[in-house]
Design goal:
single chain, about 220 residues, alpha+beta, tt1808, chain A, six-stranded antiparallel sheet, about 30% helix
């Protein structure tokens, strides 16, 4: 596949793990994705002509892995079904936007998409996406996820978990999760920190014990 590089203008990124191009048409973006496939270490974000490539760092991946493990443990304790789809590429040609979150979950809408190949023109977006903001993006992902209609956004930044709800087309900070109202949000970073000292599985077991204390007997 050949890309007309004369239309691509690099955008300075804040770290070596990021590289962004501007002037990329939707057709070029789709052709590139078809060429490289899904088996690749780097992730993309596309927003109306701007295409960003990101190579995840260890500091970026560890919180993501722990959040996924904690959400799965929470779902087990609540005895509900969830579907984790990792960095599922969420794209909408009509919006000329696409993104691969650090990880994403279908929770309330899990049954609606169970066993299906997700098509966002017909299916709902994930109920919750998670972003580990170790490296800043050149694209405003709040606006992007809002355009895609994702109801809940979790962001781990500076050892703090922030939860946002989509209200009136914009994300508003929230002290509770709509997907998991029993989750003690302020305590989650502590379990991520404990995974560094005790190990990931030990931290997950401690989290399970905490959830059992919170849940009604």
């Amino acid at each position: 596949m050949a890309i007309a590089t004369s239309t691509l203008e690099p955008i300075p990124a804040s770290a070596e793990s990021l590289f962004a191009l501007t002037g990329v048409s939707w057709q070029t973006y789709k052709a590139l994705m078809a060429e490289v496939g899904e088996d690749r270490p780097w992730r993309i974000t596309y927003d109306r002509g701007v295409l960003e490539f990101r190579m995840p760092l260890q500091e970026h991946e560890q919180p993501k892995i722990m959040i996924a493990s904690l959400v799965e443990a929470l779902a087990d304790e609540l005895e509900i079904e969830i579907m984790q789809l990792g960095a599922l590429r969420l794209d909408r040609e009509d919006l000329t936007r696409a993104v691969e979150p650090d990880t994403c979950f279908y929770i309330q809408n899990e049954l609606r998409v169970r066993g299906k190949k997700i098509n966002l023109t017909e299916d709902p977006p994930p109920d919750m996406v998670f972003e580990s903001d170790y490296t800043s993006s050149s694209i405003d992902k709040f606006l992007l996820y809002a355009a895609l209609g994702v109801p809940e956004l979790w962001r781990y930044r500076r050892e703090t978990l922030q939860v946002y709800q989509l209200i009136g087309g914009k994300y508003e900070p929230s002290n509770t999760s709509t997907a998991f109202p029993v989750l003690p949000i302020a305590e989650v970073p502590g379990f991520i920190a404990q995974s560094q000292a005790l190990g990931q599985r030990s931290a997950v077991r401690l989290f399970r014990q905490r959830i059992r204390e919170i849940l009604p007997r």
